[in-house]
Amino acid sequence: MIRVENIHKSFGEEHVLKGITTTFDKGKTNLIIGQSGSGKTVFLKCLLGLFDPEEGQIFYGEKSILDMDDDEKRDLREHMGMVFQGGALFDSMTVEENVMFPLRMFTKKRKEEMLHRVNEVLERVNLTNANKKYPSEISGGMQKRVAIARAIVNNPRFLFCDEPNSGLDPKTAILIDNLIQEITKEYDITTVINTHDMNSVMEIGEKIVFLQKGNLAWQGDNTQIFKTDNKDVTDFVYSSDLFKKIRDIQLKEI
Amino acid sequence: MKFLADIGSYFIMLGKVFSRPTKASVLWDLILKEIDELIINSLGIVVFISFFVGGVVAIQTALNIDNPFIPRYLVGFATRQSVILEFAPTFISIIMAGKMGSFITSSIGSMRVTEQIDALEVMGINPLNYLVFPKIVALQLYPFVIAVAMFLGILGGWAAAVYGGFNTSDEFIQGVQEDFTPFHVTYAFIKTMVFAFILATVPSWQGFFMKGGALEVGKASTKSFVWTSVLLIITNYIITFMLLS
Question: Model pTM?
Answer without folding.
Answer: 0.85
